[in-house]
Amino acid sequence: MFDSPWIAAALALFLWWFSTGAILLAVRRADRHGPAARIWAVLWHLPILVLAGVGFLDSLDQATVGGVYLGFLSALALWGWIELTFLTGVVTGPVRTILEPGVPEWERFIRAWGTVAYHEILLAVTLLTMIVLSYGQANTIAVLTFGVLFGARVSAKLNLYLGVRKINVEFIPEPLNHLPSHFRTARMNWLFPISITALSVATGLWLERLWVAESAADIVGYALLSALTALALLEHWFMVLPLPDEKLWRWMLPARPQPPQAITTSEDAR
User: What is the mean predicted confidence (pLDDT) over 64-77?
Assistant: First the structure.
């Protein structure tokens, strides 16, 4: 059953939804208990990082359906733990202040980079390490998975910086409240068509590889990569289309903690 490309694609879709929701849930709960809870949230999930690293190494010489799934899941777990360090504010960048209006564009870019610098460097180092360890190995699904996630993230962040029509700030945690000031709202930017084209071409290439694949492992691997890249493409479209994508996860998250003065706001009066 698990060697079906349809099952593999459905699994990729479920893991995309579930893992995103699980990370948001952990971050929202940590937000309710302060800075120490955020650090503990990262530490409590360290076993996931260890298991992901072991799974990645173990998958490299397994050119089987099981090895492909192991590599894919390991890459997602590695990515998820690193994302948790960012969303909890543990690993972000040296800039943690709101961007003042009227700064020159060059300074705006430097400050925007400063909000995510340490995290992006950690992701890049992890990807480079995976590339080195995967070189010449039988199973490269893990590094390809991580590479797709990394490329899509860089593209998304640059588009948010340059300006998109819809910026969803509902799930931004408290330690990152300064991030929206570095974003820009615009109908279109020069990078967005390039991003959409690149992700569409990448999805098409994975599908072409899936079409001509002969082994079960290759079929599952290319189905997973096709689905994951298509989801990255969909997330880019969410930035310009008026679709309520936040509803996919809002129902499963506890309410954001409110300051005491919020009790008397006009919204409560309504």
Answer: 98
pLDDT over 50 at 190, yes or no: yes
264 lies in a domain? no
Q: Which of 135, 24, 41 is nearest to 85 (CA)?
A: 41
Tokens of 96: 């943690």
CA dihedral 96, 101, 107, 110 (to 10 degrees): 30
Tell me the CA distances in angstroms from 173 to 8, 78, 143, 179, 213, one per residue in order.
32, 21, 29, 10, 42
Distance between CA 150 and CA 130 in Å, rounded?
A: 12
34 against 269, higher pLDDT: 34
CA atoms within 13 A on the CB side of 4: 6
Per-residue pLDDT at 244? 83
Does 259 reside within a domain?
no
Beta-carbon count within 10 A of 20 CB: 16
Quick check: is 267 in a domain? no
Report if pTM > 0.90.
yes
pLDDT tier, 168 (very low <50, low <70, confident <90, very high otherwise): confident
Domain containing 153 equals 5-252
